[in-house]
């Protein structure tokens, strides 16, 4: 086969795989900036997903038939990404059995954030998309009730109820937007049956599924090992990864203990002092905005990585429906976004309904040193910079679509340590202490994920792990332990950070002549690759570091 016709045929196959992927996860396409998928909820009925899986199997077989010598190194790598994209969803539907076990899948179909957050098009078009989502939501939830087969895992049900309870307030926000666009009437018309369907779904969960819910949430050793491979291209036994996590935990604990000893206080007292130094509730967002600008300047001054222009990241409160899931997060610009490169940095405010003690605990978790560390992670030089580079890189379709959690979260977590290495905080123990405090949390996430899903760890034992090893407060410890039941992939932070550190240790002095910015720019130039393939890509000749 002549090379040029062969590559053209592979281009067509790549397009076919990506189109097939988006048919079942249109919301992901919207998050990437592909707004032809606006307003679409997928058909998750059993017959439809079986058809999807059969076609995915056919496409995987076709991909396997392409030989690396014909494709060349760049497109051979893209072939691997396309295969992992299909395998990952096959895992979700077959191995993890998400559509039968996890009601959160269906309730998140009610999110309208993608249409509210970004001015990617006329307000009328965005309201139309929201109306389409609301119109499809009753049927989507009906399919959920048909597919969910109890008894369901209790943590899944409890989180679904929390998410669902936040949807009416989210719909209020969307209705206000529609009213400003003079489209309140069609929005309300679609909202009424959608909100009624949500209420019915939640009532069913509470009445029928919550009373008989169980603690049977674990993937088990075989499926957990498969998860590592299909998500991150990793074949390393999870027991070895657990050992690496334990070693990182020990290193971070030792360094934090040394800082506390220098300060002349126990670790918990040091962290308690830092927690008390927090902004008042009304100043959380203003403080975060100030940190965004400080850290942009810091990243440029220290030449940590190249910041594309323009680079604008605004700070907003986390949408109500998402507050059960997040302390802070980034809504990034998609690589296909036709209009804006703006990022949205969400910070979850204090809930006025909380007791004074709960409010103080939440503010303590967002103390000044920790909020600065979170801003490193979410904005500069973490996620926002990463997604700007993801957007600007001249990557193939496969690389623009593939997004590894361990790479994205690993990079952001790595930059927390990088910022301290570069002098953030000017030697103040508070900056490094809170960076280490967060690192301990991420180490425990990795250990909890492996423990909960392969070693019979209970939620109570995972809670104790976070309390004793990561110095987490009781509320955070429970929240983190429960998260591990439905999100085993939260191992991604430490897993990705360690992969980047290994690559830096092995390659910085060679191909990159010791220049950190060159190394970081190369790392970010791949898009968001599976971390199991990162070092292989970095070690390739420079000509192979930029795809078509």
What would you note in describing this structure?
This protein is mostly helical and 548 residues long. The chain has two domains: 3-209, no CATH class; 226-544, no CATH class. The chain is 67% helix and 3% strand. It contains 26 helices and three strands. It has helices at residues 3-24, 26-31, 46-64, 68-95, 98-101, 104-107, 113-117, 123-147, 154-165, 167-180, 184-209, 221-232, 238-263, 267-276, 284-301, 356-365, 368-378, 383-392, 397-401, 405-421, 429-454, 459-469, 474-486, 492-507, 516-524, 534-539, and strands spanning 313-317, 328-331, 343-347. Strands 1-3-2 form a three-stranded mixed β-sheet, covered by helices on one side. Helix 21 (429-454) crosses helix 24. The radius of gyration is 23 Å and the shape is globular. The chain starts with a helix and ends in a 9-residue tail after the last helix. The model is unreliable at 542-548 (pLDDT under 50).
